[in-house]
Amino acid sequence: MHFTTITSLLATIALAGNAVMATPVPAASPEGEATTTTVEARAEAPLIDLWDEAGFLGLKFTGSANVGDCKNLPSKFNDLSSSGKAKAGFRCTVWVAKDCKGDGFSFNTSGSNSKQFPSWIDNKSSSWKCVKDE
Question: What pTM did the predictor assign?
Answer without folding.
Answer: 0.68
